[in-house]
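protien #1 (seq + structre)
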Amino acid sequence: MNKSLDKNKVILGLSGGVDSTAAALLLQSQGYEVYGLYFDVTEGNEEGKAAAAKAAEQIGIPFIYKNVNELFENTVIENFCTEYMAGRTPNPCVYCNPNV
């Protein structure tokens, strides 16, 4: 276990919507240093990126943008389609959470 981790820092998935912004504010109010992270899974979602960046700016937290479109497509979407076409009911979160 890495004991040098700063337990007062949090990276939060930030969409720019009410839920993630409220979560960031709650964490801030509890003394956490919050960083807003926007994962672009569709490549070029400028509207989503702008909303998340605006929310981060409004509440005064650093904003991190990551384009994960290719990884998401190759890992999650491809598996989902393969499983679905084989007559199974895939759970995309099982592939997305540990990989993306």
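ok now protien #2
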Amino acid sequence: MNNIKVSENFTLREFQCKCGCQQVKLHSELLKRLQALRTETRRAVVVNSGYRCPAHNKKVSGAVSSQHLKGTAADIVIVGLPIAEQRKICEKYFADGGIGYAATYTHVDIGPKRRWTY
């Protein structure tokens, strides 16, 4: 289920909740920016976390108002690109949104502009 191609390089399944409920919400603007990022880098973009259902968000200690609950956020890794370069490209495509920096992935969202480090 959800194995529907939603852009040139992404399927809906990649954004579904990781708890197994198979629920998914995906904002078209998030997908558009991730696809543009993917196209420019010519590298696979792995979505570690896309949509989170309320129960899963609580289980992983997500923020009560997490953008993941709205389908407007993704935690990503750009395969084969050093984390510093990943951050730079994310700043390009999510300059007006949220970007969270972790050691092994980057959180991006289309919510209000803000920056943080995990």
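The mean pLDDT is 96.
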